[in-house]
Structure formats: C-alpha cells, structure tokens
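Email to the structure team, subject: 4-aminobutyrate aminotransferase model.

Hi all, the expression group asked for a predicted structure before they design truncation constructs. Nothing fancy, just the tokens so they can compare against earlier work. One-line instruction: predict 4-aminobutyrate aminotransferase, return tokens.
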Amino acid sequence: MNTITLTDRKNAAISRGVGMTTQIYADRAENAEIWDKEGRRYIDFAAGIAVLNTGHRHPRVIAAVKDQLDHFTHTCHQVVPYESYVHLAERLNALAPGSFAKKTIFVTTGAEAVENAVKIARAATGRSAVIAFGGGFHGRTFMGMALTGKVVPYKVGFGAMPGDVFHVPFPVEMHGVSTEQSLAALKRLFAADVDPQRVAAIIIEPVQGEGGFYPAPVAFMKALRELCDQHGILLIADEVQTGFARTGKMFAMNHHEVAPDLMTMAKSLAGGFPLAAVTGRAEVMDAPGPGGLGGTYGGNPLGIAAAHAVLDVIKDEDLCNWANQLGSRLKQRLESLRDKVPEIADIRGPGFMNAIEFNDKVTNLPSADFANKVRLIALEKGLILLTCGVHANVIRFLAPITIQDNIFVEALDILETSILQASAGN
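Reply from the structure team: attached below.
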C-alpha cells in the first residue's frame, strides 16, 4: 500500500478538520526513528508533539504495559480501584513543586486535565472567571478553546466560546511585550473588565508551546504568584507540553521560585499511552464533591503502568541532565549559523525544549514561509520537524531525550543543511 493510495483513503474517510503535518504513514518506530509503510526511515524531532520524551517504545515502558495486560486492562477506577493508580498519585504529589500537601486526579487528555483544573478552581474559590494569555494553547474542547490565545485554526467556525474567560498579552520581549507591560495589562483588566474578586484562576504555560516556545520570565512568574495571593486567585500551571524532563527539570515550574496551586500534565507522562493528570494543593483538590471529578477511562491501568515506567526511566537514565546537554548542543549548532543565515531572529528554550524563530531578511517581519521551507527541506532529507508560533514562523524541537548520539549528530547535520539551503534559495 503506497502513500498516495493511503492519502486518498484518508481524504475519503477522515474529517479534513484533523490536520496532518506530513504524509508519512508510520509502520514501526524505535526511540527517535520512524519507518513508514514504504520502508523509508525518518528521524523524529516531533515525538508525537512532546509525548515521547522517553522515545518510541522504550523497553521498560513496553515491558510494564505487557505485564499489566496479563493482569487487567480496565475496571474504571471509580468502580473497582487499583493500587497502581494510588501509587502514581503519590509519586506525582511528591514530584510536583510546592512544599505543601497535594492530591492528584487522573484523566485521559491534556484538554481534559485543563477542563478539570478549571472546575476544581471554580469549586474551591466559588468564583467563575479565568484569565489566560495571548498565544497560549490549552486544548480543543470548548473551555480549552476559550482559554487558548489563538484564533486560527483553533476557534474558527465553532461559534461562541464559554464566557468569563479573559486574555492578556504574554511577556515576549522580542515582540514588544515586557514583563511590566504584561502585568500592567492584568491590572487594566481588573480595572476595566473583571473584578479580581470574581477571578477563580490564572492559567499559564511556563513555556508557551503552540505559541512559540517562549519561556515565562522568572520575574513575571514571581509577580503573578504575588498578584494571585493578593486577590485569592489560584495559579494554574499548564505543564502538558513542558513536563517530565523536557526543560531540563522534571517540570518547567521547577525553574521558578514559586509553585502553582494546580498543575496540569499529560503528553510524556505515559510515554505514548493516553494519560493526563491534575495535581494541586490538597484542600483545593478536595473542593469538588464525590462524583464531581473522574471519567470512564481516566487513569486507565495501561497508561498508569506506562507512567510508572516513565518516571523510573527519567530518574535512572538521568534525563533531566541529558535534556540540558542535548539542548545546549542543539543551540550551539544553531548559533553557529547566525552569520550565514540572516533569517534567524532568535534561538531559545530551556533544556531540550528549544526553538528557532525566523524573520524575513528584507522586512524583518515574521516569516512563516521560511520556517515551512526549512521544515519541508528537512522532511525530504528524513528529519521530521514541527512549526509553531502565533505567526507560524518558529520551528520547535521535541526529539526524544533518549535519542542516540549518532542519530542526534545526523539530525543536526540535516537541520543545518536544510536551514542553509532554505536561506540560499530565499
């Protein structure tokens, strides 16, 4: 079955609303490599959009899931609970930032985790309003869309969003928004649009994902914590994309001196199996009544087993340290291209959550065309890349942290060649 035939079948059978970055149809995968149905091999710098920090089919993850298959695959924890669910909650409570008692719930997707975090915040505060940031991404459910700070493609055509959601600019110095300006926008919001005493939560990605891999400044996160404490607002850290060693620490919030009240997790939590979580202050997490939280598949035993293995791998293979080393090498290679590639506007990101941003070399405006050109050239050479950003002019790097050194070097060579080739033809 060739790719053209499969694409025709896909177009006939699947809604066009399910976008596809590539026309690669996976046949098998191992660590940082994918082979398609035609036998072509690719280096995977997308990792299922940050899901595979421990790589495709890590042997310990696969072994844990196989062992769970021999016991049971589903009971619904709300009907017949199981110890592994309890133990994983205990582990996340201990790992999450903050020196206070915590509790956890498990759900299935990142969007579902965000929805539940908002529910919990509203139940705990008795308030309804939520503040999010421009450029942020929090999912494709209705509350997720409302919180997301980007219209195209996430909100177009879906009608009115849930109310009592407000947005302020995220601090990105290179795009003219300082920490002071973002905080001033929050204060203007409180003065003009919503009483802070009606705000249940402020939700923020410590490093924006879809928005362009912009890290939140340390001073901004500290000021945000102080502002929340002043007004009795809960701070929600969306760590769906940033969690589990990606930024060089277990969670991106570990880079900050303050802790969130609630934290959402998903993606790399279970190494490719669907699992998400909300972890937060025990008294806040206990605000909803019994039955107010949960879901039929939440905390599926296979995902729970995989997550235990993922946490073991992160610790035993020292992945936080590896993320810092790999990210440093990647950024050094990209920095070496600055003098040759005038389109490079910025290179950034903590740990191995890195990005390169491109502007047009004549107008100095964000260039989505150039970023996409680099992506397509690299894809032709066998390297899978993803773009992101409000202006779609950013390439983000999400390779498995477990990537073998020779594969990493090969990928860097392809990346460099692709950027140079795109610039030469621009």
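The chain has a mean pLDDT of 97. The domain at 61-317 is CATH 3.40.640.10 (Aspartate Aminotransferase; domain 2). Ping us if the truncation boundaries need rechecking.
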